[in-house]
Write a structure and sequence with these properties.
Elements (H helix, E strand, L loop, with lengths): L1 H16 L2 H5 L3 E3 L2 E22 L6 E23 L4 E5 L3 H22 L1
Antiparallel strand pairs: 1-2, 2-3, 3-4
């Protein structure tokens, strides 16, 4: 059954492509330091199939069948690991900027809603 093979291939395909390296590339070496990107990679998928028939007993006729599926990948940068001769350290990406932008967008939405309500 072709649909079965297709549905089974979805998680295999996603897991082979959902890597930090795919999104951010290889570690970079410069000035005696190695920089390694660090990210959270998540993926999900869903699929389904079905079919139907008409008639009763021995007169049942195949009506049709179908199926489909899909998936997605989310890759969020977390920071970098910096390796030098003297030390290794993790440098996180600051998340405060996102919160401030979200707060500003929410404030703008509320302000716009109040103005348009009049």
């Amino acid at each position: 059954m072709e649909i079965q093979k297709y549905l089974e291939s979805i998680p295999v395909t996603l897991s082979s492509t959902a890597h930090v390296k795919t999104i951010f590339g290889d570690p970079v070496e410069a000035h005696g330091r190695t920089i390694i990107p660090v990210a959270r990679v998540q993926f999900g998928f869903g699929a389904g199939s079905g079919g139907g028939a008409t008639g009763e007993g021995s007169e049942r006729k195949r009506q049709g069948e179908g199926g489909g599926g899909g998936g997605g990948v989310l890759c969020l940068p977390l920071g970098i690991v910096e390796i030098s001769a003297g030390e290794t350290r993790f440098l996180p990406i600051r998340r405060g900027t996102r919160r401030r932008m979200a707060a500003a967008a929410l404030a703008g939405f509320i302000l716009g809603w109040l103005v348009l309500r009049r």
